[in-house]
Design brief:
Layout: H1 2-5, H2 8-19, H3 28-41, H4 49-58, H5 62-71, H6 76-92, H7 95-102, E1 108-109, E2 115-116, E3 120-122, E4 127-129, H8 142-146, E5 213-215, E6 235-237, H9 267-270, H10 281-286, E7 291-297, E8 300-306, E9 314-316, H11 317-320, E10 328-337, E11 343-357, E12 360-369, E13 376-378, H12 380-385, E14 389-391, E15 396-400, E16 406-410, H13 423-431, H14 499-515, E17 518-520, E18 529-533, E19 539-543, H15 546-550, H16 562-566, E20 574-579, E21 599-601, E22 604-608, H17 618-629, E23 638-641, E24 644-649, H18 652-669, E25 679-682, E26 684-687, E27 690-693, E28 696-699, H19 705-708, H20 716-726, H21 736-745, H22 756-763
Parallel strand pairs: 8-13, 9-12
Antiparallel strand pairs: 1-2, 3-4, 5-6, 7-8, 9-13, 10-11, 11-12, 14-15, 15-16, 17-22, 18-19, 20-24, 20-25, 21-22, 23-24, 26-27, 27-28
Helix pairs in contact: 2-3, 5-6
Length: 765
Amino acid sequence: MRNKYCSRAEIQRLETEFWHLKMEGSKIAEYVQRFHDLSHVVPYMVTPEFKRIERFIWGLAPQIISMVTSSKPATITEAIDLSVALTEEAIRLNKFDEVESKKKETHVESSGGNKRKFSSFKQGTGVVVKKGEQSAPAQDTAGSRRKGKGYMGAHPKCNSCQRHHSGRCGPKVCESCGKTGHSKDSCWANAGRGGQGGFGNRSNRGGIGNRPQGNNGGDGNRVNNANQAGAINRNQRNNQVGNDGGNGQRPGCFNCGDTGHYKRNCPELNQARGRVFNIEAREARQDPNVVTGTFPVNQRYASVLFDTGADYSFVSLEFKNMLGLAASKLDIPYSIELANGKLVEANEVIRGCVIELGEREFALDLLPVQLGSFDVVVGMDWLSSNKAEIVCHEKVIRIPTKDGENIVVHGEKRETPLRIISCLKARKCLQKGCVAFLAHIVDKKAEEPKIEDIPVMREYPEVFPEDLPGLPPQRQVEFRIDLVPGAAPVAKEPYRLAPSEMQELSTQLQELLDKGFIRPSFSPWGAPVLFVKKKDGSFRMCIDYRELNKLTIKNRYPLPRIDDLFDQLQGSSFYSKIDLRSGYHQLRIQEESIPKTAFRTRYGHYEFLVMPFGLTNAPAVFMDLMNRVCKPYLDKFVIVFIDDILIYSKTKAEHEQHLRAILELLKKEQLYAKFSKCEFWLREVQFLGHVVNGDGIHVDPTKIEAIKDWETPKTPTEIRQFLGLAGYYRRFIENFSKIAQPLTLLTQKDKKLIGESNRKKRFRY
């Protein structure tokens, strides 16, 4: 892309600009932005990472470059954050103003008292040379500057230390005490001289003066936060330090006076504290100054509050467990003041969270605290780092991207009151042709039926356990894997998984180990693991056995035809449906076939002792087991399709007897069902994509949406595909062949394709 749109001359110009890029005054934001822009254009100049860090530090302002260098940042993000903080501190101490005031054109006064400019001036280096004089090779000294004369040598002026020398900077020497490691402005021995350098105004008296507090996080009048949580507003102090007498005492903290630490590590400053006001979700949606919404955080939908009054971002203790990430300890805990005046300490942070806004993903670090109506509170740490702009009255957040686009995120707006009309007015609207929608409201929080409340079921609670008790017993059928002759073991590398999936993998592996369904393996076989999301949002662990299935001899045991199964339902009126709990895991594997089920993960190599999902012969073998178990009742009042059991009866009394017989059979065979997926005493039931009731068998409306929404076919192949799908339901459509005849004719080879309008007419016929 760079070579396509940029000429070589343009690239060289950008390289030169990047090489000489420096921070202008206190404009740290502009410097960081331009540094990032040029890094993307000429990335080879900042590769690897340590070169990027060195390149960034080299261009910083002289007031902060030495402090950033001495901190030895490990990442570019750490270097940028430190530079921004030091720049803000230097601005507060007016260090940039002092440097600007000293920048002026240098003059030399002659013996006659007339001033004249030097005739030779090297632009950009700050070196001034007088004609006819030889420049001195020595470095600029503090004494020469005190005399008020300009530099007379030929050495260039260094932008880092503001001295004239060649090569790298030497050790920094204090002009006040003569020691290295600090400058005159921050010299401890200078504290009692009334100078303006250093950290704040110093008192002339020994000891530590009174330190007035100042708020660096806003005026504190209002912090929008969740119920019982708050923003962190750091109270920074203008430091007043007493005189140590200039006796060379070891320098210490400029904040509290202790010699055991420095100001940046002072526990008084690092004990952050913030106010908290209660705000409910309903109030937040109606408040014009607050933006809320529901967004995925680590693939889990969360109620999010964007709070410009919060210094950091928070997550509720309830939602914390759904993130799938472990929390790490903070070096310095934060104190958070709740609305009732109670202080709560936050000593953990969850790093690496991902929030999805639009089609983009953003990294987010969260502090776990007790929240009320919100799951996540996004504070200024994230908003400022992403340069987000919040338009409160529009409930909109605009986030600029590096490619020049803006991501617009719409928050939840004020709820409109529900308008109710009378039945008479609704009838008039319908007569006028107004569009009406019929909504069926279901209370998902309604109490689910309990097994104790269902007749017959309450007599067999052992058939419906909360989980499988352990390894299944030896049964009439055991699963075995027969390989084609000459097959060799196949082992594949584990798939790359997301952090949330890795956490889920660890959890599910531990559950399978606790139940005894898997064990550590030394098999030469190995299949990778992947996850499939269920309807309820949880993950199902699946083993990719495709390579093993290619080498497996197929079991030709027939699965029953759905048409034949439904023929047995004639005249029935009462129905119950039983779904086995993890049916495949209720069947053992033969010992010699166990090594072939091995799978590989980041946490180890394991093999199954029970039949896993994904093997090619699993449905046929389990169907064989269920037919043997239910053989006495098949085609009488029971239909079995793999792990689904349908019990049908003509009368209520018969149905009670049939239910009791099947439950007794399951209890005897130690086969367990999942109560939440079972349905009992129904007059209409959905089974295998059909609706069954006393009037007969009907098509499930949800299964024919694909036929209704099918695009008009344009080729004979597309017509055959449509007829093949629709032909499955021909038993439910009278004169299906006659209706489909116009389309069937179009599939013949000697027929030409008709026009667009005629084709649509035949398709919609």
